[in-house]
Every structure is written in C-alpha cells, then in structure tokens.
Amino acid sequence: MPVSAAVQQTLSGDISDAEFARRIASGDHLAFEGLMRKHNRVLYRTARAILKDDADAEDALQIAYLSAYRSIGGFRGESRLSTWLTRIVANEAMMRLRRRGREAMVVPLEFVADEEGNMMVSEATAPEAERPELNAMRAETRALIERKIDALPDAFRAVFVLRALEELSVEDTAESLHIPEATVRTRFFRARSLLRESLAREMDSAIEDAFAFAGDRCDRIVKGVLDRLRTPDTT
How much is the average pLDDT of 196-201? Predict the structure, then answer.
C-alpha cells in the first residue's frame, strides 16, 4: 500500500510521543498510520521472536495495534511510546503462546553474566552485491541466522531480538518484557553464547562437507577416466 503524502509528512516531522498520542486519541488515523509505519519493524520482530511464526506474529501485531489505539488516551508519557507499544505487543504474543499450551517465557538461571563481547546480528549495511552468487550467499547466511535465532529458548529469544537486532537498551527491554534488568543482561549474554555455539557447529559441519568428493563429482570423474581408458589414444 503506497504511503500517502500526509503520512510521509507525519513520519518526516519531529513529532513528540505526547503529540502522537494526542492526535491518535482524537481519532487522527493518519497519525496512527504514521505511528504504525514508524514502529512496525521492531514490533513485528518482537512478536515474531516470541511466537516463531510469521503469520501468527502478524496477527498478534494487528491485535496489539487495535488495543493500543483504544487505550492510547491513557498514555501518560511515563515511558517512551515505543516501549509502551512493545510491551502491548509482547503481552499479546505471550498470551497467544500460553494459549498454545507452551511454557511462558520464564527460565530460572543460576549465573549472572556481563555484557562483554559484541556479536550483533543486524541488517546488512553493505552495498548491494555486484554478483548474483553473492546475493544468494547472503540470503543463505541470513536464513541460517534466522533459523538459529528461532531455535533459541523462548526466554532468551525475545531479549536477543530486542537487544541485538533492534538495539534497545537494557532498561527499555526490561520494561517491554516485564523482567528485571539483571535478567535481560543474563539472558542476552546466554543467548549470544548459544547462538555462537550453534553457528560454530554449523560451520564445522560445513567445513567437513566442503569440496565434497562423493556423489556426482566422484561419479563424473570416475566415468571420465574410464571413458578415456576405453578410447584409444590418438595423439
């Protein structure tokens, strides 16, 4: 759906959280569209991190937006509007998770870790690839990382997405997910460690298979040699 000029103007303008809330509460749908477009990525990623399903995450986000629209008149600016929205989306996603019969995102941890190290997963900032094979390689790498993030335990995955992909602060992540800041730090550190280990195992397996000699390549070479042996040397 194309973005209207009015919405583009809303997005490009320096509008405070309080002004956004006031406009939406008064029934300004253009302001609400601008709000959604501004925060869609982080909110979708939040829902997707919890639910691990694209369609379910989209539906949860839509329901959360409707809930936010109905209650935004009560927004008092005690936190940032983005944090307020993220909390609504996270609540909706976790309610769906509970309805599925899954365990809620609470995992006891016996250790406390700091935030040393900086393995961050973010959208590629490099220019477009000049060669199609490089594009394909990047797509495969991105798909691999997404699968590994999906495989993280529920308690760690949402924290990792908000901290690493969206670069939310520890404070905002804690407020969004209703967990202590110390828990955010611990889960983020553990999620990074699990992701590193998982990707390292995948890399080890890929290295073992590199330049594989079995299968088609082996058959092709053997056939070529046998064909040459059967053909008289005419040189």
Answer: 82
Dist. CA 140–CA 132, nearest whole Å:
12
For the chain, give the mean pLDDT. 75
Measured between alpha carbons, how far is residue 226 from residues 89, 128, 219, 223, 231 in Å? Answer: 65, 45, 11, 5, 9
38-73 pLDDT, tens digit each: 888 888 888 888 888 888 888 899 999 999 999 998
Domain 5-99 architecture: Orthogonal Bundle (1.10)
Domain ranges within the chain, ordered by starting residue: 5-99, 107-235
Band (219; pLDDT cuts 50, 70, 90): low
144 three-state secondary structure: helix
Which residue is listed with tokens 């699968």?
Answer: 147
From the centroid of its chain, how far is CA 182? Answer: 22
A 10 A CB-CB count for 127 gives: 6
- Tokens 């990382």 belong to residue: 145
Asked if the model's pLDDT at residue 134 lies above 90, the reply is no
Nearest-angstrom CA–CA distance, 123 and 100: 31
3-state SS assignment for residue 78: coil
